[in-house]
Amino acid sequence: MNSSWRYYWESLRTSYWFLPAVLGFSAIIASLVTVEVDHFLHEHTSWQVNWRYTGGPEGARAVLATIAGSMITVAGVVFSITIVALSLASAQFGPRLLRNFIRDRRNQFVLGTFTATFLYCLLVLRTVRGIDNEQFVPGVSVTFGILLAITNLGVLIYFIHHVAVSIQATSVVQAVTDELHDAIDRLWPKNSDQDVMGSDETPPVFPVDDAVQVLAAKSGYVDAINDEALVLAKDRDLVIRLARRPGHFVIKGTQLAMAWPRERVDEEATKRLNNAIVFASQRTPFQDVEFAIDQLVEIAVRALSPGVNDPFTALNCIDRLGEALSQLAQRPVPSSLRFDDEQRLRVITYPADFRAIAAAAFNQIRQFGEGSVAVLIRMLDTLAEIASLANREADRDALVEHATLVHRAAHRSLKEEADLKDVDAQFQIAQRQLAASNAQLKKQD
User: In this structure, are residues 362 and 383 in contact, taking their beta carbons and an 8 Å threshold?
Assistant: First the structure.
């Protein structure tokens, strides 16, 4: 599937209205089916269905009206509870995490079940006729509506439990971590048939003097880069070097890419390359691992702020960041070179960089948490654990640099000698682990 279509499908699937709309459409279909069944049973009186509703028209109207009214009332309550949960989450964890609550399919399902039941009962209610000569009571449809009401009672109880659990700090961190792992599996696959970056891979020299700058046609965050760029390069016999990656903000009129040779780049090619870039008003983890990293960092930084003062949540985030970076350190780095079917170089993407991801994960937490002994010690311990699993020397060098920065931050901010001794002891342990890891790596080579 084309990357842009995958992006739009993912945006649609995770929107707050999509699943309720699907359930509402299903309710319309269900009402038509059950009413048709009732018409069939009404015409064939010899068919006996003992479990269906057997009351009169007035009773059927009362039951359906009661269910419909109560369901739309409960739907309003559910929506109000959701808004309160979103407000609490925004204040405690940051407004960028609201998308995780909005895209929660369980919340969408709960809202959809109540609105779908309301819609079902409303459509069935219009078929009840109480005239003596044309009396029609859809017994099967009414019975099915009652079953939906009973089911929705259980759904309401589940929803209250789910909201109470989902706004807890540990649950929020776990949800963001799961999204981060999904992004890693999608963008840094463990076993992939795609080209991976070799240890000696360097992008070829690009003829800048004979290339054309492709300027952005609009502003926004680069959310995805689809395969149209590779198709364009092959159709026009071009080599394209992208100057942006997913997660970068692009200003209209600034450089988006370089294309060579210049005589094959016209207005149509520029337009097609712009169309190959999916822009969005905000970042998403669709093709951006750093965005999910930033979400965990934001939770940790807010937890370390004087207004919140929750170092345990920050420690939880550091543990999860260490888990994610350990995965990245063991995965092959995706190649920045894209070739066509004839193995001719066509596209040079913005390269993936473990060092930049590690900086995004630890820099801000170190800067905001340099006065916390527990945070500094946990960061040193986490860096050493990541390094023990890293497969590339450059990645381990980056981790050594971060450990050194954490150690310097401790000596700059801590005044208590006992605290400094604890940090120094952990730093020495981390140094020994890092040295042992480097020695093991060289031995394997």
Answer: yes
